[in-house]
Amino acid sequence: MSEARAYEPNVTRVRTVTVIPPRLKPVPGMPTLAVRPKRVAAYARVSTNSEEQLTSYDAQVKHYTEHIKARECSDNWQFVEVYTDKGITGTSTKKREGFNRMIQDALAGRIEIKTAKLIQFDFSSAATF
């Protein structure tokens, strides 16, 4: 009896794929799609109402406003607001109305990017956050 041999083709086929790049042409009368700007906000806070702190507060608000507005064209940002708290301690967030409003607005999708100075919380305030 003869052994069965596996079929072995003598022709090797090579498949070629031609990639045709898309050609996007504007359709007359159809509006172009625009990318919605990122809604950006900032947070500024000072812990006392002393003259030195109020000067810092004004400088923070001015800095963040200018920083965001300067990036409106280059980074497609839209200035929303600088959320603020004056004369409020940083050890708890309970009385920081501006901070809490910013968090609520972020959770509701009214702002997408937050800009702020590094905010440090100690362990006791982390529990109230």
Top keywords for this entry?
alpha/beta, three-stranded parallel sheet, 129 residues, 3 helices
Descriptive account of the structure:
The protein has 129 residues and is α/β, with parallel strands linked by helices. The chain is 27% helix and 18% strand. Strands 2-1-3 form a three-stranded parallel sheet, with helices on both faces. The chain is elongated. The termini are far apart.
Number of strands: 3
Radius of gyration: 29 Å
State which percent range the strand residues make up. Answer: 15-25%
Order of helices and strands: EHEHEH
Number of helices: 3
Q: Summarize model confidence as the mean pLDDT.
A: 78
Structural class: alpha/beta
Q: Main sheet? A: 3 strands, parallel
Q: How helix-rich are the residues, as a percent range?
A: 25-40%
Please give the alpha-carbon distance between the first and last residues.
Answer: 85 Å
The coarse overall form would be elongated
User: How are the strands ordered across the major sheet?
Assistant: 2-1-3
Stretches with pLDDT under 50, minimum 5 residues? 118-129
Question: What's the helix and strand layout?
Answer:
Layout: E1 38-46, H1 51-70, E2 77-86, H2 97-107, E3 113-116, H3 123-126
Parallel strand pairs: 1-2, 1-3
Describe, in short, the structure shown.
The protein is of the alpha/beta class and 129 residues long. The chain has helices spanning 51-70, 97-107, 123-126, and strands at residues 38-46, 77-86, 113-116. The longest helix is centred in the middle third of the chain and has 20 residues, at 51-70.
